[in-house]
Amino acid sequence: MNGPSTFTTKADAGLWLAKVETDRSRGVLLDRELSQRPFGEWAAGWLTGLHVKPKTEVSYESCLRNHVMPVFEDRPIGSITYRDCRSFVDDLRSKGLAAGTIGEARKILRLVLQEALREDAIHRNPADGLRVPRGSRTEMVFLTVEQVFALADAVANPPRPASHPLQHWPSYGLLVRFAAFSGLRAGEVAALRVGRVASDGSWVEVAESVEEVHGQLVYGPPKTYSRRRVDLPAALADEMAAHRASRPSDPAAPFFTSPSGGSLRHTNFYRRFFKPAVGRAGLEQRTRFHDLRHTAAALMIAQGAHLLVVKERLGHSTIAVTADRYGHLYPSLSARLTNQLDAVYEGGRDGLTS
Q1: For residue 250, is it within any domain?
Q2: pTM of the model
Q3: What positions does the domain Tyr recombinase occupy (predicted)?
Q4: Which of 87-96, 128-137, 214-223 shows the lowest per-residue confidence on average (mean pLDDT)?
Q5: Cβ-defined contacts of 41-46 (< 8 Å, 24+)
Q6: pLDDT in tens, 64-91
Q7: Mapping DSSP to helix (H, G, I), strand (E, B) and coil, where does residue 303 land?
Q8: CB 193 within 8 A of CB 208
Q9: Domains in the chain: how many in total?
Q10: Could you tell me if residue 235 is inside a domain?
Q11: Is the backbone of residue 315 left (phi > 0), alpha (psi -120 to 50) or beta?
Protein backbone atom coordinates (compact mmCIF):
# COMPACT_ATOMS: atom_id res chain seq x y z
CA MET A 1 0.00 0.00 0.00
CA ASN A 2 1.52 3.34 -1.07
CA GLY A 3 1.09 6.29 1.29
CA PRO A 4 1.19 10.03 0.67
CA SER A 5 4.60 11.40 -0.28
CA THR A 6 4.21 14.37 2.15
CA PHE A 7 2.16 15.20 5.25
CA THR A 8 0.89 18.58 6.48
CA THR A 9 2.06 17.97 10.00
CA LYS A 10 4.14 15.47 11.88
CA ALA A 11 0.98 14.44 13.71
CA ASP A 12 -0.69 13.53 10.39
CA ALA A 13 2.28 11.37 9.49
CA GLY A 14 2.06 9.68 12.85
CA LEU A 15 -1.65 8.98 12.47
CA TRP A 16 -1.14 7.50 9.00
CA LEU A 17 1.71 5.29 10.22
CA ALA A 18 -0.39 4.15 13.19
CA LYS A 19 -3.23 3.18 10.83
CA VAL A 20 -0.80 1.27 8.62
CA GLU A 21 0.52 -0.67 11.59
CA THR A 22 -3.03 -1.42 12.80
CA ASP A 23 -4.09 -2.62 9.36
CA ARG A 24 -0.98 -4.75 9.04
CA SER A 25 -1.58 -6.39 12.41
CA ARG A 26 -5.19 -7.09 11.39
CA GLY A 27 -4.06 -8.50 8.04
CA VAL A 28 -6.03 -6.03 5.93
CA LEU A 29 -3.21 -3.92 4.49
CA LEU A 30 -3.16 -4.49 0.75
CA ASP A 31 -1.10 -3.30 -2.17
CA ARG A 32 -3.89 -2.49 -4.62
CA GLU A 33 -1.64 -2.64 -7.65
CA LEU A 34 -0.50 -6.13 -6.72
CA SER A 35 -4.04 -7.27 -5.93
CA GLN A 36 -5.05 -6.47 -9.53
CA ARG A 37 -2.24 -8.55 -11.01
CA PRO A 38 -3.68 -11.65 -12.73
CA PHE A 39 -3.33 -15.06 -11.14
CA GLY A 40 -1.30 -16.25 -14.14
CA GLU A 41 1.52 -13.83 -13.37
CA TRP A 42 1.64 -14.94 -9.75
CA ALA A 43 1.65 -18.58 -10.85
CA ALA A 44 4.56 -17.98 -13.24
CA GLY A 45 6.58 -16.36 -10.45
CA TRP A 46 5.76 -19.15 -8.03
CA LEU A 47 6.78 -21.82 -10.54
CA THR A 48 10.07 -20.06 -11.30
CA GLY A 49 10.98 -19.90 -7.62
CA LEU A 50 10.32 -23.56 -6.88
CA HIS A 51 13.13 -25.54 -5.27
CA VAL A 52 11.91 -29.10 -5.71
CA LYS A 53 13.06 -32.22 -7.52
CA PRO A 54 12.73 -32.11 -11.32
CA LYS A 55 10.01 -34.77 -11.41
CA THR A 56 7.99 -32.86 -8.80
CA GLU A 57 8.38 -29.64 -10.76
CA VAL A 58 7.12 -31.36 -13.92
CA SER A 59 4.13 -32.70 -11.99
CA TYR A 60 3.32 -29.26 -10.56
CA GLU A 61 3.64 -27.55 -13.93
CA SER A 62 1.38 -30.11 -15.60
CA CYS A 63 -1.33 -29.82 -12.94
CA LEU A 64 -1.13 -26.03 -12.99
CA ARG A 65 -1.42 -25.91 -16.79
CA ASN A 66 -4.16 -28.52 -17.16
CA HIS A 67 -6.40 -27.81 -14.19
CA VAL A 68 -5.72 -24.53 -12.39
CA MET A 69 -4.81 -22.03 -15.11
CA PRO A 70 -7.87 -22.64 -17.32
CA VAL A 71 -10.04 -21.40 -14.43
CA PHE A 72 -7.95 -18.70 -12.75
CA GLU A 73 -5.26 -17.51 -15.18
CA ASP A 74 -6.83 -14.14 -16.06
CA ARG A 75 -8.51 -13.45 -12.72
CA PRO A 76 -7.09 -10.59 -10.62
CA ILE A 77 -5.56 -12.30 -7.62
CA GLY A 78 -7.50 -10.09 -5.22
CA SER A 79 -10.85 -11.05 -6.72
CA ILE A 80 -10.57 -14.78 -5.96
CA THR A 81 -12.85 -15.85 -3.12
CA TYR A 82 -13.36 -18.96 -1.05
CA ARG A 83 -16.53 -19.62 -3.05
CA ASP A 84 -14.48 -19.56 -6.27
CA CYS A 85 -12.05 -22.06 -4.81
CA ARG A 86 -14.87 -24.25 -3.57
CA SER A 87 -16.54 -24.22 -6.99
CA PHE A 88 -13.20 -25.11 -8.58
CA VAL A 89 -12.84 -28.23 -6.43
CA ASP A 90 -16.48 -29.22 -6.93
CA ASP A 91 -16.08 -28.91 -10.69
CA LEU A 92 -13.03 -31.19 -10.66
CA ARG A 93 -15.01 -33.74 -8.67
CA SER A 94 -17.92 -33.57 -11.11
CA LYS A 95 -15.50 -34.38 -13.94
CA GLY A 96 -14.58 -37.61 -12.17
CA LEU A 97 -10.95 -36.74 -11.49
CA ALA A 98 -9.07 -38.88 -8.98
CA ALA A 99 -8.89 -37.65 -5.39
CA GLY A 100 -5.11 -37.34 -5.67
CA THR A 101 -5.38 -35.10 -8.73
CA ILE A 102 -7.96 -32.88 -7.03
CA GLY A 103 -5.78 -32.64 -3.94
CA GLU A 104 -2.77 -31.67 -6.03
CA ALA A 105 -4.73 -28.97 -7.87
CA ARG A 106 -6.02 -27.54 -4.57
CA LYS A 107 -2.49 -27.59 -3.17
CA ILE A 108 -1.07 -25.67 -6.14
CA LEU A 109 -3.90 -23.12 -6.05
CA ARG A 110 -3.26 -22.54 -2.38
CA LEU A 111 0.52 -22.20 -2.83
CA VAL A 112 0.15 -19.57 -5.57
CA LEU A 113 -2.34 -17.63 -3.44
CA GLN A 114 0.09 -17.89 -0.53
CA GLU A 115 2.68 -16.03 -2.60
CA ALA A 116 0.20 -13.19 -3.07
CA LEU A 117 -0.54 -13.20 0.65
CA ARG A 118 3.14 -12.78 1.48
CA GLU A 119 3.32 -9.77 -0.84
CA ASP A 120 0.26 -8.12 0.76
CA ALA A 121 -1.78 -8.49 -2.43
CA ILE A 122 -4.55 -10.31 -0.51
CA HIS A 123 -5.43 -10.18 3.16
CA ARG A 124 -6.10 -13.91 3.53
CA ASN A 125 -5.71 -17.08 1.52
CA PRO A 126 -9.16 -18.04 0.18
CA ALA A 127 -8.03 -21.64 -0.35
CA ASP A 128 -7.27 -22.14 3.35
CA GLY A 129 -9.60 -24.64 4.98
CA LEU A 130 -10.77 -25.94 1.62
CA ARG A 131 -11.54 -29.63 1.99
CA VAL A 132 -10.91 -32.11 -0.78
CA PRO A 133 -11.93 -35.76 -1.01
CA ARG A 134 -9.44 -38.10 0.57
CA GLY A 135 -8.18 -40.82 -1.72
CA SER A 136 -7.86 -44.36 -0.53
CA ARG A 137 -4.28 -45.37 0.23
CA THR A 138 -2.95 -48.14 -2.00
CA GLU A 139 -3.06 -51.35 0.00
CA MET A 140 0.38 -52.66 0.81
CA VAL A 141 1.46 -56.16 -0.18
CA PHE A 142 3.78 -57.96 2.24
CA LEU A 143 5.64 -60.92 0.77
CA THR A 144 6.91 -63.91 2.67
CA VAL A 145 10.58 -64.80 2.39
CA GLU A 146 9.61 -67.72 0.16
CA GLN A 147 7.65 -65.40 -2.12
CA VAL A 148 10.59 -62.98 -2.33
CA PHE A 149 12.88 -65.77 -3.52
CA ALA A 150 10.25 -67.10 -5.93
CA LEU A 151 9.83 -63.63 -7.41
CA ALA A 152 13.58 -63.12 -7.66
CA ASP A 153 13.92 -66.44 -9.48
CA ALA A 154 11.12 -65.52 -11.90
CA VAL A 155 12.72 -62.14 -12.63
CA ALA A 156 16.13 -63.75 -13.19
CA ASN A 157 14.76 -66.42 -15.52
CA PRO A 158 12.25 -64.86 -17.90
CA PRO A 159 10.89 -67.02 -20.74
CA ARG A 160 13.13 -66.53 -23.75
CA PRO A 161 13.39 -68.35 -27.09
CA ALA A 162 16.33 -70.72 -27.30
CA SER A 163 17.93 -68.42 -29.86
CA HIS A 164 18.06 -65.50 -27.41
CA PRO A 165 21.69 -64.68 -26.49
CA LEU A 166 20.81 -64.24 -22.81
CA GLN A 167 18.65 -66.78 -21.02
CA HIS A 168 19.33 -65.79 -17.41
CA TRP A 169 19.68 -62.48 -15.56
CA PRO A 170 21.11 -63.38 -12.14
CA SER A 171 21.87 -59.74 -11.32
CA TYR A 172 18.15 -58.92 -11.56
CA GLY A 173 17.32 -61.74 -9.16
CA LEU A 174 19.88 -60.25 -6.78
CA LEU A 175 18.30 -56.83 -7.27
CA VAL A 176 14.92 -58.14 -6.10
CA ARG A 177 16.37 -59.89 -3.04
CA PHE A 178 18.45 -56.82 -2.20
CA ALA A 179 15.42 -54.51 -2.40
CA ALA A 180 13.35 -56.82 -0.18
CA PHE A 181 16.01 -57.04 2.53
CA SER A 182 17.36 -53.47 2.40
CA GLY A 183 14.17 -51.45 1.93
CA LEU A 184 15.72 -49.05 -0.58
CA ARG A 185 13.38 -47.14 -2.86
CA ALA A 186 13.36 -47.98 -6.57
CA GLY A 187 15.21 -44.75 -7.45
CA GLU A 188 17.83 -45.44 -4.78
CA VAL A 189 18.42 -48.98 -6.09
CA ALA A 190 18.82 -47.73 -9.67
CA ALA A 191 21.22 -44.97 -8.54
CA LEU A 192 23.45 -47.27 -6.47
CA ARG A 193 27.09 -47.05 -7.58
CA VAL A 194 29.94 -49.53 -7.20
CA GLY A 195 31.85 -47.25 -4.85
CA ARG A 196 28.93 -47.11 -2.43
CA VAL A 197 28.86 -50.87 -1.88
CA ALA A 198 31.33 -52.31 0.63
CA SER A 199 33.93 -54.57 -0.96
CA ASP A 200 32.64 -57.44 1.18
CA GLY A 201 29.02 -56.47 0.40
CA SER A 202 28.18 -55.98 4.08
CA TRP A 203 26.69 -52.51 3.66
CA VAL A 204 25.62 -49.94 1.10
CA GLU A 205 25.62 -46.17 1.32
CA VAL A 206 22.46 -44.49 0.08
CA ALA A 207 23.46 -41.09 -1.24
CA GLU A 208 21.59 -40.70 -4.52
CA SER A 209 18.30 -41.36 -6.22
CA VAL A 210 17.43 -41.24 -9.90
CA GLU A 211 14.18 -40.47 -11.66
CA GLU A 212 13.16 -40.26 -15.28
CA VAL A 213 11.97 -36.84 -16.47
CA HIS A 214 10.93 -36.38 -20.10
CA GLY A 215 12.93 -39.46 -21.04
CA GLN A 216 16.11 -38.26 -19.30
CA LEU A 217 17.63 -39.73 -16.15
CA VAL A 218 18.02 -37.08 -13.45
CA TYR A 219 20.16 -37.87 -10.40
CA GLY A 220 19.72 -36.12 -7.08
CA PRO A 221 19.66 -36.68 -3.33
CA PRO A 222 17.38 -39.31 -1.76
CA LYS A 223 13.79 -38.41 -1.05
CA THR A 224 14.48 -37.14 2.46
CA TYR A 225 17.80 -35.48 1.45
CA SER A 226 19.73 -37.55 3.99
CA ARG A 227 22.47 -40.05 3.29
CA ARG A 228 22.30 -43.29 5.20
CA ARG A 229 24.13 -46.58 5.53
CA VAL A 230 22.21 -49.83 5.38
CA ASP A 231 23.84 -53.02 6.70
CA LEU A 232 23.02 -56.28 4.94
CA PRO A 233 22.63 -59.89 6.15
CA ALA A 234 25.81 -61.95 5.71
CA ALA A 235 24.38 -64.33 3.08
CA LEU A 236 23.10 -61.42 0.97
CA ALA A 237 26.39 -59.59 1.52
CA ASP A 238 28.26 -62.48 -0.07
CA GLU A 239 26.07 -62.22 -3.18
CA MET A 240 26.53 -58.45 -3.30
CA ALA A 241 30.31 -58.84 -3.00
CA ALA A 242 30.39 -61.37 -5.84
CA HIS A 243 28.39 -59.05 -8.07
CA ARG A 244 30.59 -56.08 -7.12
CA ALA A 245 33.65 -58.06 -8.18
CA SER A 246 32.08 -58.51 -11.63
CA ARG A 247 31.56 -54.78 -12.09
CA PRO A 248 34.13 -52.22 -13.32
CA SER A 249 36.54 -50.83 -10.72
CA ASP A 250 35.29 -47.31 -11.39
CA PRO A 251 33.50 -46.30 -8.15
CA ALA A 252 31.05 -44.16 -10.17
CA ALA A 253 29.91 -47.12 -12.31
CA PRO A 254 26.31 -48.24 -11.76
CA PHE A 255 26.00 -51.31 -9.55
CA PHE A 256 22.89 -52.59 -11.32
CA THR A 257 22.66 -51.92 -15.05
CA SER A 258 20.32 -52.08 -17.99
CA PRO A 259 20.49 -55.16 -20.25
CA SER A 260 22.88 -53.23 -22.52
CA GLY A 261 25.16 -52.35 -19.60
CA GLY A 262 24.12 -48.71 -19.20
CA SER A 263 22.27 -46.98 -16.39
CA LEU A 264 19.25 -48.89 -15.14
CA ARG A 265 15.91 -47.34 -16.07
CA HIS A 266 13.39 -48.51 -13.51
CA THR A 267 10.40 -48.03 -15.81
CA ASN A 268 11.91 -50.41 -18.36
CA PHE A 269 12.98 -52.93 -15.73
CA TYR A 270 9.52 -52.85 -14.15
CA ARG A 271 7.70 -53.33 -17.46
CA ARG A 272 9.99 -55.93 -19.03
CA PHE A 273 11.17 -57.98 -16.07
CA PHE A 274 9.40 -57.29 -12.79
CA LYS A 275 5.71 -57.12 -13.65
CA PRO A 276 5.68 -60.20 -15.95
CA ALA A 277 7.48 -62.16 -13.22
CA VAL A 278 4.82 -61.34 -10.62
CA GLY A 279 2.31 -63.59 -12.33
CA ARG A 280 4.83 -66.36 -13.03
CA ALA A 281 5.77 -66.39 -9.34
CA GLY A 282 2.12 -66.86 -8.38
CA LEU A 283 1.85 -63.55 -6.57
CA GLU A 284 -1.09 -61.15 -6.47
CA GLN A 285 -1.13 -59.19 -9.71
CA ARG A 286 -1.31 -55.91 -7.80
CA THR A 287 2.16 -56.52 -6.34
CA ARG A 288 4.40 -53.53 -7.13
CA PHE A 289 8.15 -53.02 -6.83
CA HIS A 290 7.49 -50.65 -3.92
CA ASP A 291 5.97 -53.58 -2.04
CA LEU A 292 9.50 -54.95 -1.69
CA ARG A 293 10.17 -51.92 0.52
CA HIS A 294 7.05 -52.70 2.56
CA THR A 295 8.23 -56.29 2.80
CA ALA A 296 11.60 -55.17 4.13
CA ALA A 297 9.85 -53.20 6.88
CA ALA A 298 7.68 -56.19 7.77
CA LEU A 299 10.68 -58.53 7.92
CA MET A 300 12.52 -56.14 10.25
CA ILE A 301 9.52 -55.75 12.52
CA ALA A 302 8.98 -59.51 12.64
CA GLN A 303 12.52 -59.81 13.99
CA GLY A 304 11.67 -57.39 16.79
CA ALA A 305 13.32 -54.30 15.30
CA HIS A 306 12.66 -51.05 17.13
CA LEU A 307 10.60 -48.53 15.16
CA LEU A 308 13.52 -46.08 15.19
CA VAL A 309 15.80 -48.65 13.52
CA VAL A 310 13.18 -49.28 10.84
CA LYS A 311 12.89 -45.52 10.30
CA GLU A 312 16.65 -45.10 9.90
CA ARG A 313 17.02 -48.02 7.47
CA LEU A 314 14.12 -46.90 5.30
CA GLY A 315 15.25 -43.27 5.31
CA HIS A 316 11.97 -41.80 6.53
CA SER A 317 11.98 -38.11 7.46
CA THR A 318 10.43 -38.72 10.88
CA ILE A 319 9.51 -41.68 13.05
CA ALA A 320 5.89 -40.54 12.75
CA VAL A 321 5.98 -41.47 9.06
CA THR A 322 7.25 -44.94 9.93
CA ALA A 323 4.60 -45.38 12.62
CA ASP A 324 1.86 -44.25 10.25
CA ARG A 325 2.96 -46.73 7.56
CA TYR A 326 3.86 -49.75 9.64
CA GLY A 327 2.61 -49.23 13.18
CA HIS A 328 -0.21 -51.70 12.56
CA LEU A 329 2.35 -54.50 12.23
CA TYR A 330 3.51 -54.11 15.82
CA PRO A 331 0.45 -55.46 17.71
CA SER A 332 1.54 -58.97 16.68
CA LEU A 333 4.49 -58.49 19.06
CA SER A 334 2.22 -57.64 21.99
CA ALA A 335 1.90 -61.23 23.20
CA ARG A 336 5.69 -61.68 23.17
CA LEU A 337 6.15 -58.46 25.14
CA THR A 338 3.47 -59.46 27.65
CA ASN A 339 5.20 -62.82 28.24
CA GLN A 340 8.55 -61.12 28.68
CA LEU A 341 7.09 -58.66 31.20
CA ASP A 342 5.46 -61.58 33.00
CA ALA A 343 8.86 -63.25 33.34
CA VAL A 344 10.31 -60.03 34.78
CA TYR A 345 7.39 -59.71 37.20
CA GLU A 346 7.71 -63.33 38.37
CA GLY A 347 11.44 -62.86 38.85
CA GLY A 348 10.85 -59.83 41.04
CA ARG A 349 8.24 -61.62 43.12
CA ASP A 350 10.39 -64.73 43.52
CA GLY A 351 13.33 -62.61 44.60
CA LEU A 352 11.20 -60.99 47.33
CA THR A 353 9.97 -64.31 48.77
CA SER A 354 13.27 -66.20 48.62
Answers
A1: yes
A2: 0.76
A3: 138-342
A4: 128-137
A5: 42/77, 42/112, 42/113, 42/115, 42/116, 42/121, 43/68, 43/69, 43/72, 43/73, 43/112, 45/115, 46/111, 46/112, 46/115
A6: 999 999 999 999 999 999 999 999 999 9
A7: coil
A8: yes
A9: 2
A10: yes
A11: left
